[in-house]
Design a protein that fits this description.
The structure holds 2 protein chains of 2 kinds.
Chain A (H helix, E strand, L loop, with lengths): L1 H8 L1 H26 L6 H12 L4 H31 L15 H4 L1 H19 L10 H9 L2 H28 L5 H31 L1 H4 L2
Chain B lengths: L4 E10 L8 E11 L4 H14 L22 E2 L2 E2 L21 E5 L8 E3 L2 E2 L2 H10 L19 H11 L6 H5 L6 H12 L8 H14 L10 H5 L7 H15 L4
Parallel strand pairs in B: 1-5
Antiparallel strand pairs in B: 1-2, 3-4, 3-5, 6-7
Helix pairs in contact in B: 2-5, 2-6, 3-5, 5-6, 5-8, 6-8
Classes of the chains: A mainly alpha, B alpha+beta.
């Protein structure tokens, strides 16, 4: 096992960890997007989807523990990389900071967008996961109520924008980390990674706006 | 050939030794020929300093034709200055305008401690090469060159990687101070060719391990390196290194 620990501790190993956990979190987000889009078919469909998920029994806590572990590994490794990189850069900053090309808004702000997403997810869980849901007050009602609060509407739209920024660098970056970089396909890869991120974010934002515009359709 | 002259102000980093505290020093330079190279401008400045009995500015240089990798400084925030795919010695004063203030700093990174003024210690890059940037060959008479066939496009890619002169601009410009483009190029060059296969299993792991020991940061795929590289090396070679490392790390034991 020593080779495994040695690999995980090396700088490239930490990149692989970030890439793999990031990929899995992205995969979860995709499933989350597809599942949540049942709300476009109305209150019943959305509640049925939620009910269906909860009927999976023992798989629910197993999945939750797995997801939380992946998330925690992603966060800890990210913070570790940030601290190491800051110390590698040294105390003396350059007098002039320029961007000779390459850096994007997304790539420059990974640690900050990451931290914001962490806070956002905690609020998100407090809003929807750790609330009491009953036969009368279903998840559909909870979601509609929360998102109709103007403060939360804004928070969720901003949260999605920040997530889009994070993924705009993250998705392409994880492909590069796993060595997927071929000039022939690079433009296609860049377009596809952007498109996937944009679609996911667009669906979430649409859901938020839909619930604000047509709340009556979804309230019981 | 007639050449214009310009007057400039140079704001340059001075530091007497590795542990001394450095600071910027301003010098006004008059009648600098736009045909002169950046290092020649520094020569003119040093001559003036020496004539006044002051300590000249220490800077690294050797071939002055852009192939040795010895020179390098950060000019106005960009490693090797504003001209793309150009070493500092091949940068000319025609890239600047009359009245410009030019800010010159050494390559900064924890892995590149400053020796004096603009001179930094880049021997960490040598250690990385010693860790794995080599091939094993038998001594004796060479075999026929045509007995090892290498497709042209592979040879071209290896040559692109081999263009790396080891100047360290990638690490100096990297927001995370990682010389990944350097290591990527060195690994790529050997991984592409049959002669590099003997050590392929251990090369990437050893070289990256050595990089970590020398206090460099971790690549964040920011792509600044390929934009300052005087040889225009692509991060495609970093991707190849990532593949080589995966192969090496997971197939090490047998």
């Amino acid at each position: 096992m020593s080779w495994f620990i040695q690999t995980c501790r090396s700088s490239l190993g930490k990149k692989y960890i970030m890439a793999l956990t990031g990929f899995l979190l992205g995969g979860f987000l995709l499933v989350h997007t597809i599942g949540n889009s049942t709300i476009f078919w109305g209150r019943e469909a959305f509640n049925a989807y939620a009910h269906h998920l909860h009927s999976l029994g023992v798989f629910v806590p197993i999945f939750e523990i797995g997801l939380v572990s992946i998330f925690i590994i992603h966060v800890i490794t990210g913070v570790l990389l940030f601290l190491q990189n800051r110390s590698a850069r040294g105390g003396q900053k350059y007098e002039v900071e320029t961007n000779p090309g390459g850096r994007t808004w997304g790539s420059q702000t990974m640690i900050y967008t990451g931290a914001s997403i962490l806070v956002f997810i905690l609020i998100h869980l407090a809003n929807f996961h750790f609330v009491e849901k009953t036969e009368i007050l279903t998840i559909s009602d909870v979601v509609t109520k929360v998102l109709n609060n103007p403060g939360f509407t804004l928070l969720y739209v901003i949260g999605m924008a920040v997530l889009a920024l994070h993924i705009s660098h993250g998705f392409w970056s994880l492909l590069q980390t796993f060595g997927i970089n071929t000039p022939q396909y690079n433009n296609a890869i860049r377009v596809v990674t952007w498109a996937v991120a944009a679609i996911m974010i667009a669906v979430f934002v649409l859901i938020t706006l839909l619930l604000v515009v047509s709340q009556n359709q979804l309230l019981g | 050939m007639s050449s214009k002259t310009i007057n400039i102000i140079v704001k340059i980093w001075r530091q007497t030794g590795p542990h001394a505290k450095g600071n910027f020093e301003d010098h006004a330079l008059k009648d600098i020929s736009t045909g002169s190279s950046f290092l020649e401008m520094l020569d003119v400045m040093n001559e003036a300093l020496a004539n006044k009995g002051k300590e000249p500015i220490a800077f690294d240089h050797d071939c002055r034709e852009g192939i040795c990798g010895m020179c390098g400084a950060v000019v106005n925030g960009t490693a090797h200055g504003p001209e793309k795919e150009t070493t500092l010695c091949q940068l000319h004063m025609r890239s600047f305008k009359d009245g410009d203030t030019i800010i010159i700093e050494p390559f900064r990174a924890t892995g590149f401690p400053i020796v004096k003024d603009l001179i930094v210690d880049r021997s960490a890059l040598d250690s990385i090469i010693q860790a794995g940037g080599f091939i094993s060959v038998n001594t004796g008479s060479p075999q026929d060159a045509n007995s090892i066939l290498i497709p042209q496009h592979i040879a071209e890619q290896a040559m692109d990687a081999a263009a790396c002169i080891g100047c360290g601009a990638c690490a100096a410009a990297c927001p995370n101070a990682a010389p990944m483009l350097f290591i990527g190029a060195k690994i790529s060059q050997l991984a592409l060719l049959p002669q590099g296969q003997q050590e392929a299993r251990t090369r990437a792991v050893s070289m990256v391990g050595c990089m970590d020991e020398n206090g460099f940061g971790n690549c964040g795929n920011e792509r600044v390196c390929e934009n300052v590289c005087p040889k225009g090396i692509s991060i495609r070679h970093i991707a190849r290194m990532n593949r080589e490392y995966l192969k090496g790390a997971f197939a090490q034991s047998d």
